[in-house]
Task: inverse folding
């Protein structure tokens, strides 16, 4: 049965690199959203806890509930958190309306738009937000921003960083004037973390924990991809030159050879290789995935019992003109995980 | 919260069309594999049962176990079925080796390669297969083939159809000579079913049940897509001309307008729209999904509380140069389903 193997030592190595850069692990919060970027929410939560992580970020309450006993602080980025959910699950608030309706005891983190113009209240609303927070005696845990240029750098990155710093200062000043305890503050993702020399805030480590960094930065840290994807052989056929394989028979044998089918397909979240796909997509040891891929299997000119599709998704991401995140998060949560 | 709405009346309509074509419903078996092609395994199993379906096909034992109380016959296409699994779950056998090792009491269906050269034993092995089946007193439930040209038609389709007929005749003859009861036989998928005038075998209805047919056939049946995908607004911003949105700020406002973010992204299985994506991808009512899509949200120039991404995935399939199956099966199983 196909498996995603998780290398726990590579994960530890990545966390150590990040902690060393931060000069401490206490501010390292891990992003486990979208099934831990396809790596398996529970498996990665288990490893994160073993490695001393206390704060994590997930997609929504559904994910948070699955790991609520693992961590001190769990923030659900999207959607509401139910009244009866454990108190260590925090909701994210992106509008003033939500500040007006959230249960006062529910811990929450306020997202402020620093220029990405996607989620969060605008800077202009901060004053009103804190008036509501103070008046309704809300349980403000954190304030955060998200920089839309972490991977690109340049002037936009700096502008959003300086907006973020301005937001933080305003939050400090508003807390003082309302006599509120200071919330935690976070703004940096993986690339932001490695761009800065030190950080007193929490950093939200996503991709770097899993072994990748999409940003072009000086002296990139030697992160190690932690997941490799494996498929098992279903069966083999010895075919003659000219025989066709799969849907539409678009692959035709160039010579007499053995072909085998393996138990992963586009229904497992892989991009569907077909005859219009430019170039050859190769498995980790060079076997070509023959077009067309089926929903639950693919064929290749191999007799191996087990084949490794990738140990590093960057090749696949380049091939499909996308980013490692997309290849990883599309992996079906039902692919078996095994932690080594 | 984003939802996939399932139209139970459209599903009933599709099943009725298929039954009318078959002149009976008794041979209609439904394919529920890969989370019912992304529609939700349990939801679709419930609807299928309500509509009197008795035989279904799923991906593997993991899927079969979730719906084992719903149907008389459940066939898992891939992988082994455990010894302690309920007896109405059948394993598929694609090699002679598996025939030698499968638990004799476990019901199974034998796949025979009719020329797709993907899965199944070769025709040449049929005799050996039945020798093992008879000798080990195996519990043979069915024999099936899969035509790789159902959507393309042409000479290859006919050749595989005639191979399939030859396999059936050989199975009948082998059963007679080994004094074995005749197994059920199945070869047709959705397009094969509508191509033929009648069928005494079981037909495996996949895509047509969900409202689509990829094949070009004369007088296509008026199937109705049963799923529509909806996202909810996270928040809105009034932006000025020139302001940028999202990662890398690749979308720049052409005029002062309101932009909103909605709670679906490529981490939910949508294809990631980005600046290299050719053309504009539109929601059902014409709103453009602005590049770049994020993992958990996308932005569009709208203020709607709820937006419909599609009611018919064929547009998205054409846009991404793929087939409806891929768009559907990639939808995250964690998107909430609601049956209407």
Result:
């Amino acid at each position: 049965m196909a498996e995603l193997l998780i290398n726990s030592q590579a994960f530890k190595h990545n966390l150590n690199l990040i902690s060393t850069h931060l000069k401490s692990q206490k501010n390292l919060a891990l992003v486990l959203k979208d099934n831990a970027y396809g790596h398996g929410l529970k498996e990665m939560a288990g490893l994160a806890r073993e490695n001393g992580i206390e704060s994590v970020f997930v997609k929504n309450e559904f994910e948070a509930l699955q790991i609520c006993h693992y961590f001190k602080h769990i923030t659900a980025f999207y959607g509401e958190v139910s009244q009866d959910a454990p108190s260590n699950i925090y909701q994210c608030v992106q509008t003033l309306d939500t500040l007006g309706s959230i249960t006062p005891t529910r811990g929450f983190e306020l997202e402020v738009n620093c220029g990405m113009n996607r989620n969060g209240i605008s800077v202009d609303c901060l004053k009103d937000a804190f008036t509501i927070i103070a008046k309704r005696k809300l349980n403000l845990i954190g304030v955060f921003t998200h920089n839309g240029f972490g991977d690109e750098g340049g002037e936009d990155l700096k502008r959003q960083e300086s907006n973020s710093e301005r937001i933080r200062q305003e939050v400090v000043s508003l807390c003082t004037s309302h006599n509120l305890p200071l919330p935690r503050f976070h703004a940096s993702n993986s690339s932001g973390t490695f761009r800065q020399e030190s950080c007193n805030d929490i950093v939200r480590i996503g991709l770097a924990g899993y072994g990748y960094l999409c940003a072009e930065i000086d002296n990139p840290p030697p992160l190690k991809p932690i997941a490799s994807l494996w498929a098992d052989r279903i069966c083999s056929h010895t075919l003659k030159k000219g025989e066709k394989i799969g849907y539409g028979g678009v692959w035709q044998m160039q010579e007499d050879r053995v072909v085998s089918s393996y138990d992963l397909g586009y229904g497992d979240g892989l991009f569907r290789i077909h005859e219009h796909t430019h170039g050859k997509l190769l498995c980790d040891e060079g076997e070509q995935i023959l077009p067309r891929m089926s929903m639950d299997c693919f064929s290749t000119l191999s007799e191996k019992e087990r084949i490794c599709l990738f140990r590093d998704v960057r090749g696949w991401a380049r091939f499909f003109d996308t980013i490692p995140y997309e290849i990883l998060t599309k992996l079906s949560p039902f692919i078996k995980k095994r932690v080594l």
Remarks:
- Chain B touches chain A through 60 residues (CB under 8 Å).
- The first helix of chain B runs from residue 8 to 22.
- Residues 248 and 315 of chain B are 27 Å apart (CA to CA).
- The mean pLDDT of chain B is 96.
